[in-house]
Automatic annotation (TrEMBL):
Keywords: DNA-binding, Transcription, Transcription regulation. Residues 18-37 bind DNA. The lineage of its organism: Bacteria, Bacillati, Actinomycetota, Actinomycetes, Kitasatosporales. Residues 1-55 form the HTH tetR-type domain. The keyword Nucleus does not apply. Pfam families: TetR_C_11 (PF16859), TetR_N (PF00440). The keyword Transcription applies. This is TetR-like C-terminal domain-containing protein. InterPro entries: Homeodomain-like_sf (IPR009057), HTH-type_TetR-like_transc_reg (IPR050109), HTH_TetR (IPR001647), Tet_transcr_reg_TetR-rel_C_sf (IPR036271), TetR_C (IPR011075). It comes from the Bacteria. Gene3D superfamilies: Homeodomain-like, Tetracycline Repressor, domain 2.
Amino acid sequence: MLRAAVRVLAEEGYRGMSFEAVARAAAVGRPATYRRYRDRADLAAAAIAAIGGDVTAPIDTGDTRADLTEFVTRISDAMPHAGIPLLGTVFAERERHPELLARFRERVAEPRRALASALLERGMDRGDVRSDLDVEAAVDHLVGAVFARHITGLPVAPGWAEQTVLTRWRGISC
C-alpha cells in the first residue's frame, strides 16, 4: 500500500492523492487504507518514511564514528528513492496543508534526528564525543550535508559518507 501511495504522490502530487486513488493503485479496498492511517497527510508521510527501507533501525557497531557513517549512508541511500520532488511536494503544500508538513516531521524528520542524536549521545557516554557538544547542531550538520549533496545533484561517490563524517568528526570528537 505504501509503494502505491508513493506512486500516486509522485504522479498526482498531494492534491491528487486520495485514499481511493491509493487503494485502487494498491488493489485493496478503501477501508484498508482508512484502518491504517488517520488521514491523507498521515498516509503520505508514512509512504515517504517507508522509502529506502528502515532508515531508523538501531545502529551499534561499537564505534561512534562508524555508527555515524552508517547513519549518513542510510539517509543518503534513501534520498534518491525518496526523491527531492516528493520532499518538494511536502514543502510546496505547507501553506494549504500544514498537516502534511506536521506529519512529515513526525514520521520522517523526527525519527531520523532522534537516531542521530542517540548515536551522538552514546558517543558522549563512551568518551568518543566531546561532552560539551551541541547535539542538535551536530545533527543539523550531518543531515544538512546529505540534503546539500542531493539537492545540488553532485555525485555521491564511494567513500562520500565516510569523508563527510570524518570532516565533522574533527569538530565533535574528544
